[in-house]
Design goal:
alpha+beta, five-stranded antiparallel β-sheet, elongated, C8orf32 fold
Length: about 280
């Protein structure tokens, strides 16, 4: 797609000081969509006349709007795909994130695991294979325990480095599990969650200690697990949640990361994301 006559007209108005004109430009570019923004990105440095910084700011504002619109549609739909939700939350922080790269990295990792899983194996055997690949073969490890580093929190970085804070690595664990067809969901309690493998009708098959390489334990040991992590256990306070809960948890994690600078662009972006999610909170 080339720059057409309308896009040339829009370009001439991108750095207009009139806020009404600027909003009209943003509205029209949003209507045209991401393809037009990619064209502008390719030409903006060397070929477009006008103020580069202002033009780039307009493009970023349009991308912000498009991502929030996609996330809003996702949250209102009944098809809560974990991949889509996590990708959109990441993209809300970095609207220029490469979606195709994110997808291809997940696909490459999951295909390697799928080759070893089998319906002929028991749940325990398949779980052992998945844990081996996640923690040993792929090499995901915990770092940044105080949750201070962006590279240890944003999933697109963790896919490359294999290092992240405990919550982010846990979310990656759920994401790869879902990509290979394993029904692992969060058993949520006030302030946190425990991964559980579920079977027919959502029945819990067993619990997983992700801090110990995905070690399997049973309901009889659940109280001991909570004691170990310093949480008072009450059966009435725990509930198996769906993939949407994991999307909310990821957004909460990013809100915690950026909390130190409430005036920053990224903090404002994640606050808008959390506002779309209503009152559901898990951390």
């Amino acid at each position: 797609m080339k720059i057409d006559a309308e896009l040339f007209s829009i370009i001439s108005l991108m750095d207009d000081p009139d806020t009404t004109v600027r909003e009209a430009v943003i509205d029209r570019l949003a209507d045209r969509g991401e393809e037009s923004l990619q064209i502008l990105d390719r030409f903006i440095v060397d070929n477009l006349p006008g103020d580069y910084e202002k033009q780039k700011e307009v493009i970023n504002q349009v991308r912000d709007r498009l991502v929030l619109e996609r996330l809003s549609r996702f949250l209102k739909s009944r098809d809560h795909t974990l991949y889509d939700g996590l990708m959109l939350v990441s993209k809300s922080i970095n609207p220029e994130m490469d979606e195709q790269l994110f997808f291809s990295q997940i696909s490459e990792m999951s295909e390697e695991i799928i080759q070893e899983l089998s319906d002929d194996k028991t749940d325990l055997e398949n779980m052992g294979i998945f844990n081996y690949f996640f923690f040993r073969r792929l090499g995901f490890v915990y770092s940044d325990f105080l949750i201070e580093k962006e590279e240890g929190t944003l999933l697109e970085h963790i896919l490359t480095t294999k290092k992240g804070n405990p919550v982010a690595i846990s979310i990656m664990y759920f994401l790869l599990a879902r990509a290979v067809g394993m029904e692992i969901y969060p058993l949520c309690f006030p302030g946190g969650f425990v991964p559980v493998l579920t079977g027919e009708e959502g029945r819990i098959v067993f619990y997983l200690n992700i801090f110990k390489g995905g070690a399997v334990f049973t309901k009889e040991s659940l109280a001991d697990f909570f004691k170990e992590v310093g949480v008072d256990y009450s059966p009435d306070d725990v509930r198996v949640e769906d993939d949407l809960a994991l999307v909310v948890i990821y957004a909460e994690l990013l809100g915690y990361l950026y909390r130190s600078d409430e005036k920053s662009v990224k903090y404002k972006r994640i606050e808008r994301v959390l506002s779309l999610m209503g009152g559901r909170r898990f951390l």
